[in-house]
Amino acid sequence: MCGIFAAITQRNIMNILIDGIKKLEYRGYDSSGLAIIDHDNNMVRIRCIGKVDELIRKIQKKKILGHIGVAHTRWATHGKISKANTHPHVSKNIIVVHNGTIENYSVLRIFLQKKGYIFYSDTDTEAIAHLLHWEQNKKKESIEQVIQNSIKQLYGNYSMVVIDKNNPTRLIAARSGSPLVIGLGIEENFIASDQIALLNLTKRFIYLEEGDIAIIKKKEINIFNKKNFKIKRKETISNIKYKSIKKGKYSYYMEKEIYEQPASIRNTLKNRVQKNNTIYFSELQFKKKNLLYYAEHIQMVACGTSYHAAMVSRYWFEAFAKIPCDVEIASEFSSRKIAIRKKSFLITLSQSGETADTLSALRYSKKFGYLGNLTICNMEGSSLVKESDSYILTRAGIEIGVASTKSFTTQLTVLLMLVAQIAHFKKENKIAEKIIETLHILPQRIEEVLKKNELIKNIAKKLSNKKNILFLGRGEQYPIAMEGALKLKEISYIHAEAYAAGELKHGPLALIDKNIPVIIIAPKNSLLEKIKKNIKEIYSREGVIYIFSDQEFNVEKNIHLVKLPYIEELIAPIFYIVPLQLLAYYIALNKGKNIDQPRHLAKSVTVE
Ligand code: AGP
Fold first, then answer.
1. Atom of ligand 1 nearest to the CA of 403
2. Is 290 exposed, middle or buried (0-12, 13-18, 19+ CB in 10 A)?
3. What distance in angstroms lies between residue 305's CA and the mean position of ligand 1's atoms?
4. pLDDT of 242 higher than 70
5. Which fold has domain 3-244?
6. Which of 176, 291, 396, 591 has its CA 20 to 30 A from that of 159?
């Protein structure tokens, strides 16, 4: 949450800063700002409410020349959305951009106010700026020494970049809880919350680790770890193509990412199925033996869409790998006293690997003696990957749209592979082989359902003016109904709820009337007859029904069939989410919403 971009350059910095912060807009877009030290050693600070385009408009009229600067795009935590609360925050010569939350900021604020500091904002970041200024003046030390000493007084999660206007030859960055990556240029260097912002500038990256402080000059970078020892962090060369983060022919990233799913799934499967029809994840290395195989229980923890993927996999783990499995929302898991099951193994799921709730759940789980933990994640250098015993990458490719799509279907693909792997280990060879065989067909099946876009567009026209929509599913299609409802509410702002179809008569049936359409996922499987009964219950109460199915149904007034291609039962959940993603997309498009940047949300939620 919040995007940080900073640079020290040979060239004029303005366009680089603007371009960098624009690419981080998916992390928060309540307001944005930047500060540059210009050629006369003045600080020029420009801030405004709204999207980065507003900032660009404001800057267009100005001619500012400089070689060092910081920029920030905000997702409001401390303090409302206002210009005063927009970063960078300044205390005389100290300029700060920050991502995260400082828990003891009110104590700091009171302390600094007593020392005579005036606060112009409600943010915790301004307290950091004043604290650094106070400490610097007290001890007359360099800003890097001041930061090394003062961060001990900050409790919470943060990543920050600081400029000292009195010595504008370096950026000082500190990481604790939120990611920062340095991009190495030729006699110029950059730092950002995510490498996406740096891909057009360099391929060479250094990821800061927890507790690191980096002093970044044009020609030199020094990094100190949390014990204040100077260290060398590994340089990585990224193979992500800059082109892959462009929208290309698509109107929105979400649309592009929906259509990329066959390719992403192919990539997820690539080189992971062995000649003997077993699964091998090359990155899945355990310190001890693979304790996951010996687990008697799996505990899964995640948020949002990743939580829904975990919920689907619970059906698979129990049915195919014969292993009991529980799934919990990360923020709930870490806020209660846990009675751990015997020989339990923890799996976290996350697209970003930076979700604060999931990270705290992982950290919390370490007190309870799980056999081990594994994260299924899309981002290799992320905090979850670093802090877990082991990891599997989903290989979805970079996902920019706030609404997760390809990360969900690739998570499900990995989970099904993992289920097959464990099933094999448990000598459930027949089902393991069946899963592997069926997974090969999956990308092609997704291509087939994507061709139904015109059909979905027509349904979207009928539903775009609705205020409430219900989603129903049974078995592993229940979490798919939940995911369909989540997609719709987050990008179209239509109130959508999902229920397990069998639960309808226990209360929600009271909602049914002609104004509340009900979307029912009804593929051919052992639960089809039960779903048909639910359809009758709704129909006889004048409900308007949209059935997403590969089966024929009696289409009567108020019953619409969205006829989809045939799909193998094993992979049906991965298939059925795709038309629901398209439906949410087209409805939001009809309503003229900003699909990639829905209001109040951000792509990676780095605050608890
Ligand atoms: C869904 O479309 C979301 N944007 C959101 O629910 C997301 O899945 C959740 O915040 C978890 O993110 P993660 O997968 O990066 O941990």
1. 2
2. middle
3. 5
4. yes
5. Glutamine Phosphoribosylpyrophosphate, subunit 1, domain 1 (3.60.20)
6. 396
Domain locations in the chain as residue ranges: 3-244, 247-448, 453-590
Q: Which of 404, 415, 486, 489 to mutate to test the pocket of ligand 1 (most atoms within 8 A of CB)?
A: 404
Q: Tokens 């302390």 sit at which residue? A: 111
Fold of 247-448: Rossmann fold (3.40.50)
Over the stretch 76-131, which tens digit does the pLDDT of each residue have?
887 899 999 999 999 999 999 999 889 999 999 999 999 999 999 999 999 999 99
Q: What distance in angstroms lies between residue 600's CA and the mean position of ligand 1's atoms?
A: 14
β 468-473/390-393 pair status: unpaired
Written as six digits, the tokens of 342 are 């015997």
Nearest one of 102, 129, 236 to 181, comparing CA atoms: 236
Q: By C-alpha distance, which of 87, 3, 75 is closest to 600?
A: 75
| Residue whose CA lies nearest to ligand 1 atom number 4 | 403
Question: Mind listing the pLDDT tens digit for each residue in 185-239?
Answer: 999 999 999 998 999 999 999 999 999 999 999 999 999 999 989 999 999 998 8
Position 161 confidence tier, pLDDT thresholds 50, 70, 90? very high
Question: What is the amino acid identity at position 253?
Answer: Y
Report the pocket of ligand 1 as residue ranges, CB < 6 Å: 303-306, 350-352, 355, 358, 402-404, 486, 490, 604-605
Separation of CA 540 and ligand 1 centre (Å): 37
Active site residue 152: no
- 603 belongs to the catalytic site: yes
Query: For residue range 6-64, what is the model confidence (pLDDT) as tens digits?
Result: 999 999 999 999 999 999 988 888 999 999 999 999 999 999 999 899 999 999 878 89
- Among the options 51, 256, 406, 603, which is catalytic? 603
| Distance of alpha carbon 464 from alpha carbon 462, whole angstroms | 6
What is the residue with the minimal CA distance to atom 9 of ligand 1? 304
Å from CA of 355 to ligand 1 middle: 8
97: amino acid identity, one letter: V
Of the listed 2, 303, 325, 377, which one is catalytic?
Answer: 2
What's domain 453-590's superfamily in CATH? Glucose-6-phosphate isomerase like protein; domain 1 (3.40.50.10490)
Query: Do residues 463 and 487 make contact, with C-beta atoms less than 8 angstroms apart?
Result: no
Q: From the centroid of its chain, how far is CA 565?
A: 31
- pLDDT bin (cut points 50, 70, 90) of residue 289 is low
Q: Residue 253 in contact with residue 401, Cβ under 8 Å?
A: yes
Domains 3-244 and 247-448 share a fold: no
Bridge partners for 473 per DSSP: 500
Does 580 have pLDDT greater than 70? yes
Which of 1, 29, 257, 303 best tests ligand 1's pocket when mutated (most atoms within 8 Å of CB)? 303
- Residue 304 CA, closest ligand 1 atom number: 6
How far apart are the CA of 179 and the centre of ligand 1, in A?
17
Please give the distance, rounded to the nearest whole angstrom, from the Cα atom of residue 333 to the centre of ligand 1.
16
Residue 265: phi and psi, rounded to 5, are: -65, -40
pLDDT at 76: 86
pTM of the model: 0.90
